[in-house]
Design brief:
The protein contains ten helices and nine strands. The chain is an alpha/beta fold and 248 residues long. The protein has a five-stranded parallel sheet. Strands 3-4 form a two-stranded antiparallel ribbon. The protein has a two-stranded antiparallel ribbon with strand order 8-9.
Length: 248
């Protein structure tokens, strides 16, 4: 899988990639990550990539020419028909685990790191650009968001994780939050690991984990339970949880 990240701060992307599993996955050939410096495509001697907005107002807008030229060059390689182009934007579609799973089926992702007040709107008429948001808040630039998207998608590729189960059991892989986890020592400061987890009884462990995942979701993100399809076992476990928790 190939990622091309367009940014005016390529060092942010490269430094983060080198210091994470993304770098190891790139070295192993599981994924390709390249950064494109948008300033390299600026048309003036000052390498200008932004200007004031027409109509007035505070802030700056990313100019269309450098991004257009960068995209044009990328899409000349024969990847035009298989490239999916995204722009990090606070007003974009919410990025979540299901979105990551869909993107993991793609071969080629181009991510434009938004900055300032945004990019010139005409770029969205020239290219099939999808605006994507990692949350309902505002960042100074899209580099962090691009890294979030890249890692969330990459870790779903075979070979990225040491064990496939490590990805399969993550929060949201069950459509709900993940279950609590424990490791050695079995007793720490008089706190014991739940007995069921050291019982060796796989079915009891499965039910315990599912119940505790449902409990965490109910207590921390109850709105998620309104959107997911629960089976009869889930409904029974939720009834037990609500009886156990005084707030429900």
């Amino acid at each position: 899988m190939k990622f091309e990240i367009l940014t005016i701060f390529p060092e942010i992307i490269e430094n983060a990639v080198k210091a994470s599993l993304l770098g190891k996955a790139r070295e192993a050939g599981i994924i390709e990550i390249d950064t494109i410096d948008i300033r390299d495509f600026a048309t003036d001697k000052h390498k200008t990539v932004d200007d004031t907005p027409f109509g007035g107002g505070a802030g700056m807008v990313m100019k269309p020419e450098p991004i257009d030229m960068a995209l044009s060059q990328l899409l000349k390689t024969g990847d035009k028909n298989r490239a999916r182009i995204m722009l990090t934007s606070a007003s974009g579609k919410k990025f979540d685990q299901k979105f990551a799973e869909k993107l993991a089926r793609e071969e080629f992702l181009i991510i434009i790191c938004g900055r300032y007040k945004g990019v010139d709107e005409r770029l969205k008429k020239l290219y099939p650009i999808e605006e994507v948001s990692i949350g309902d808040y505002v960042l100074s630039g899209g580099e962090v968001a691009a890294l979030v998207i890249t890692e969330a998608v990459s870790r779903l590729k075979p070979g990225y994780m040491g064990k496939l189960e490590a990805a399969e059991d993550d929060s949201y892989s069950w459509d709900i939050l993940g279950y609590p986890v424990y490791t050695q020592p079995q007793v720490y400061r008089d706190l014991k690991v739940p007995e069921v987890l050291v019982s060796g009884h796989h079915e009891k462990i499965r039910v315990f984990r599912r119940k505790e995942a449902l409990r965490k979701t109910l207590l921390q993100r109850p709105e998620i339970l309104e959107k997911v399809e629960l089976n009869a076992e889930d409904e029974k476990l939720l009834d037990e949880i609500k009886q156990e928790e005084n707030n429900f």
